[in-house]
Amino acid sequence: MVELGHVKTISSKSKLTELKKFFSSAKCLQVKQQICDMGRRMWQRTYVEGNGGNLAVRVGADMAICTPTMISKGFMTPDDLCLVDLDGKQLLGKRKRTSEILMHLQIMKRQPKAVASCHSHPPHATAFALVGEAPPTKMLPEFEVFCAVGLAPYRTPSSPEMGKLVSDLCDRCNTILMASHGVVTWSSKSLEEAYWRMEILESYCRTLIAARQIGKKPKTFNAAQMADLMRLKQSFGL
Ligand SMILES: [Zn+2]
User: Fold this and answer.
1) Series of mean pLDDT values for 10-residue runs along the chain (238 residues)
2) Residue 37 maps to a domain
3) 21 CA to middle of ligand 1, Å?
């Protein structure tokens, strides 16, 4: 797991030579490597198609390393990644940054705790987003403990309005379905935890759809069972 503690001394206003040194430092290389690893995991699990999906990790005082546009998330190398400020201005990187970066940055601005975010189109979770419905709750422990889900209305991907609607939900949600689009997750700990939320949500939605095919109403947790799960959640510091 990459330690994401901020190097506060370096910011988007630092000299270009300092920024270049920072962007090629061992710390940033570790972050870039983890972005490539999570991208591969998303592609292997068919959460992204074509050049879809994007990832971002906060670094320095007011910057993020993110994925570029027009690239398969399954086949990135650290050299492909971009450095941007929190307004989305590209500071470094050979490729052009993702057009969806604004949504990630709006989450990071709204939620100072957010260190990483992950966006993809996992088919079963996106099926719920297509019908404009958040998945029902109180059915599986992992989902209750790790994911707090919200549903943002549709806006054109990459638009500031989309980012605003998503970031408006961040106070109470770490896993956000975007109607007719996909999912974005964020974490205060690591990119891997943001990715886990994606995996847990997708697995949950797939299981719900399978349960619907059985044709019987799934059982839900009662109040005492939910209280127990909330205690477990607290013990994990979530
Ligand atoms: Zn998207």
Assistant:
1) 58 96 97 98 98 97 97 98 98 97 96 97 98 96 96 96 96 97 97 98 97 95 96 91
2) yes
3) 31
The set of catalytic residues is 100
Rg (CA), the chain: 18
Ligand 1 centroid vs 229 CA: distance in angstroms? Answer: 32
> Which two structure tokens, joined as six digits, stand for 64?
């993020």
Tokens of 5: 């503690």
Provide the residue range defining the domain that includes 90: 16-235
User: Does any domain span residue 4?
Assistant: no
Distant-in-sequence, close-in-space partners of 193: CB < 8 Å, separation ≥ 6: 116, 187
The alpha-helical segments, DSSP class H, found in the chain are 16-23, 26-44, 101-110, 123-130, 141-146, 160-167, 191-214, 223-235
- Per-residue pLDDT tens over the stretch 56-65: 999 998 999 9
Report the separation in Å between the CA atom of 181 and the middle of ligand 1, taken as the mean of its atom positions.
6
